[in-house]
């Protein structure tokens, strides 16, 4: 769309009306929005943020704003506790947020809330790992996932550096405790297992015993590749015939 189609010329009267009538209203609304809202409760005047941070009440600012927007009185909005669903597991009753901080919970808070909302068993929702979770790694007699080890105070380097050291054959304890830039005492990689020796098959013909490669190089062989000779033998041809019979296509060309 051309720029001229998005703009329009205004008369001097319309410009003056905007500057002296509409613009002050817009500025006043913006200033009123930027000023904190002062609310009275229990004979005190405070902003909503100050009321939410008051140590005598246990309602966060977001909940307080939502309640005031719905028409609650300030006293009721502050003093009414939040209705949290509590779950029983391991013989204890706690909220989902408290269970997410429990060391027995092995999943993220988001996954825990999703499972509890779907009706999973309480203990299973907290202890069953995800199918895509990284494997557990053992070090210092403990089993943790790699991202958990990277947050451990015994870990001296970042998670990516730990992964690189493990790929080079470092032990988990060495990868975690060695400082950045340190070299392993023994940098030799473990020896690779020996490759299995290739077994060649020998074929006997004309009183001689050779491999297919040697037979194709023999001047008596009528085919030019080991693949063609192998196809003939797989098809059940006698070895002498597979070796000496000229291909029909080649015979026509000749």
Task: Describe what is shown at a glance.
The chain has helices spanning 3-6, 12-34, 48-52, 61-69, 74-79, 96-100, 109-117, 122-127, 146-150, 159-167, 172-177, 212-217, 226-234, 239-244, 248-253, and strands spanning 38-41, 44-47, 86-89, 92-95, 136-139, 142-145, 202-205, 208-211.
Explain this structure.
This protein has 254 residues and is of the alpha+beta class. Among the domains are: 38-79, no CATH class; 91-127, no CATH class; 136-177, no CATH class; 202-253, no CATH class. The chain is built from 15 helices and eight strands. A two-stranded antiparallel ribbon has the order 1-2. Strands 3-4 form a two-stranded antiparallel sheet. The two termini are 74 Å apart.
């Amino acid at each position: 769309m051309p720029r001229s189609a998005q703009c329009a010329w205004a008369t001097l009267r319309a410009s003056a009306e905007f500057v002296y009538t509409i613009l002050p209203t817009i500025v006043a609304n913006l200033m009123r929005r930027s000023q904190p809202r002062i609310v009275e409760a229990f004979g005190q005047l405070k902003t909503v943020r100050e009321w939410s941070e008051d140590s005598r009440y246990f309602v966060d600012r977001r909940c307080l704003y939502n309640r005031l927007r719905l028409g609650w009185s300030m006293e009721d909005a502050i003093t009414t506790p939040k209705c949290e669903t509590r779950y029983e597991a391991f013989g204890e009753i706690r909220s989902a947020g408290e269970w997410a901080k429990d060391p027995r919970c092995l999943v993220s808070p988001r996954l825990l809330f999703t499972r509890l909302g779907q009706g999973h068993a309480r203990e299973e929702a907290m202890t069953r790992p995800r199918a895509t979770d990284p494997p557990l790694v053992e070090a210092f007699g403990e089993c943790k996932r790699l991202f958990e080890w990277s947050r451990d105070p015994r870990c001296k380097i970042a998670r990516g550096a730990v992964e690189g050291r493990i790929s080079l054959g470092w032990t988990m304890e060495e990868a975690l405790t060695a400082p950045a830039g340190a070299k392993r005492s023994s940098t030799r990689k473990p020896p690779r297992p020996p490759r299995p020796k290739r077994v060649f098959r020998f074929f006997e013909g004309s009183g001689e015993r050779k491999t297919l490669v040697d037979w194709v190089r023999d001047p008596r062989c009528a085919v030019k590749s080991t693949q063609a000779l192998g196809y003939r033998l797989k098809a059940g041809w006698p070895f002498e015939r597979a070796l000496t019979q000229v291909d029909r296509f080649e015979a026509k060309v000749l």
